[in-house]
Amino acid sequence: MAHDVNTLVGPHGVVRADELVRRVDRHTVARWVRRGRLLRPHPGVLVLPELFGEWRTRALAAVLATDGVLSHWSALAQWRVGPPGGPVHVSVPAARRALRSPGLVVHRVRSLDPDRIGGLPVTPLPRAVVDSWGLALAAGGRPRDVETARSAVITTIRERQVTPTALRAGVAGRPALPGRPDLLDLIAKVEGGSHSELEIWGVDHVLTGPGMPAFVRQFPVALARGSVRLDAAIPELRVAIEFDGAAFHGDQTARERDIRRDAALAALGWVVLRFSYRRLRSEPESCRREILGVCAARRSLLAGR
User: Fold this and answer.
1) In this model, does residue 249 exceed pLDDT 50?
2) Of 16, 99, 158, 229, which one has the greatest count of Cβ atoms within 10 A?
3) pLDDT of residue 78
4) Coil, helix or strand for 96?
5) Strand (E) or helix (H) holding 114
6) What pLDDT, in 10s, does the model give residues 84-139?
7) pTM score, two decimals?
8) What CA–CA distance (Å, rounded) separates 86 from 74?
9) Which of 208, 268, 277 is nearest to 242 (CA)?
10) Which helix (H) or strand (E) covers residue 294, if one does?
C-alpha cells in the first residue's frame, strides 16, 4: 500500500516518530529517512525537509522532542516581540534531563506556567522578557542580544502587552539575574514616558541637567481631530519637545503628518521643538541651549501679557 508522506506528517511538517510508526510500518519510515524524504532533527521527531527552514516547524519540532515550552528568545519570537531565528529555546521542569541536540537549547527551570500562542506552549510574556534579559546580560552575551532584550522591554510596556508591575514581579524573585539593576532602571524610564531608545537617550543627556525645567513625559493635548501625546512638554509655557527617530528621516508621509500636527499645536499656542537622531547624539549641548532659550523667551512673552 502506497503512503503519501506529506499527508501522514501533517500540515506543519512535524510528527513524533512513535506516532508515525503507528500508522506506517517502521521499515517504511526508516527508508524515508535514509532517502531524505524525512529528517530527524532531534531524537523521536521527524520533519519534512522542505519545511524545516520555517520558524513554526522548527519550534514545533523542539516542543515535541522535549515536551517543553518555548522560552527565552523563542518565546519572544512567538509573542512577536523578537525576531525568529537561531537555535530554538525551550524550558522543561528541573527534574527532567535536558536533551542535547543541534539547534536546540533546553533550560531546566523550577516552575512552568505556560501560555499558548498559535497552538504552541510558550512562557508568559513577562517571564519571557525577563528570561531573555538574563541571557543577554550574562557573560558572553552579544550586543545585538542586548538590543533585542531592551527592545522587548520598551515595546511590551509601550504597547501595554505587559505592565511594569508584572516585570518587576518577575525580577523580584531573581536577585542573581544578570543586569538586574539596569533592567529595573529601564522599566522605570519606560514607565515614566520614554517610549524609545532615542527618547531615553534624549532625556538622560539633553532634558536632564542643571537649569533644565521640569518636563512632563507623554503629555496629552486635545486637537480638533483627536488627541496627541507629546514626547516631553512644559505645559505652563506650552513648549513641546519631539524626538524624531532615524527611521523617519526619509519618510515623506511621516514628515507631512508631523507638519500638520505641529500646525494644529501652533494654533493652540504651542511651540514645538523637534530634534533629529543625528543632532541629539552629536550636539546635546546645542539642543539644551536651544530649549533653554525658547523657554526664556516664552516666559518673557507670557509675563508681558
Assistant:
1) no
2) 99
3) 97
4) coil
5) none
6) 989 999 999 999 888 999 999 999 999 899 999 999 999 999 999 999 999 999 98
7) 0.87
8) 9
9) 277
10) helix 284-303
How wide is the angle at C-alpha 51 spanned by C-alphas 49 and 56, nearest 5°?
Answer: 135
Dump pLDDT digits (tens) for 176-185: 999 999 999 9
227 by DSSP, 3-state: which?
A: strand
- Domains of the chain, earliest start first: 5-122 (no CATH), 125-191 (no CATH), 197-303 (3.40.960.10)
**Residues 126-150, buried b or exposed e (16+ Cβ, 10 A)?**
bbbbbbbbbbbbeeebeeebbebbb
User: Going by C-beta distance under 8 Å and a sequence separation of 6 or more, which residues neighbour residue 99?
Assistant: 42, 43, 65, 66, 106
**Cell numbers that stand for 44 in this block:** 523521536
Residue with the three cell numbers 508515525:
20
Question: Amino acid identity, residue 229?
Answer: R
Cα 116 to its chain centre, rounded Å, is 18
51 C-beta neighbours (distance < 10 Å), count: 19
Burial grade of 211 (CB within 10 A; 0-12, 13-18, 19 or more): exposed
Adjacent-strand bridge partners of 273: 241
